[in-house]
Amino acid sequence: MDRLQKADAVAQLNAILNDVGVVVVTRNLGMTVDQSTDLRGKMRDAGATYKVAKNRLAKLALKDTDYTGLDEFLTGPTALAWSQDPVAAAKAAVEFAKSNDKLEIVGGSMGTQVLDEAGVRALAALPSLDELRSKIVGLVNAPATKVAQVVNAPAAKLARVFGAYAAKDAA
Description:
Blueprint: H1 3-17, E1 22-28, H2 33-46, E2 48-52, H3 55-62, E3 78-83, H4 88-99, E4 103-110, E5 113-115, H5 117-125, H6 129-170
Antiparallel strand pairs: 1-3, 1-4, 2-3, 4-5
Helix pairs in contact: 1-3, 2-4, 4-5
């Protein structure tokens, strides 16, 4: 990479980091290409992105963002995972790390709040934004369906009574 390419990579990463909800730092200790491809696919499915970046360039890209506290985690063979949803990247990284001992969760950050490994794991245990939305819709819908059932119940009982009288008269 020449200077221009490095400057462009730093600018792109900086722009991305100014627009995400969470960043997770991982250490990949000898992952194969197939494992990395599998991890990237799982991240993509979760709505997250996984990228291996040079530590020096990543530290430069972290400047002037909310994620400046991640500098301390960028040592050794690291990679960054990020997502708009504050839970998606953490959840995907933790799930993959459970089945693959070559991926280690180092830490992360949710805005200016720096998280250690335990913090990232706790964040991954939370429901995602989509799960929360579906629970809220379910809670809002539940009373409406109960009201509809209560309103329809007397009419249904009345219809059964009329049906019973009609059957009695026909017999």
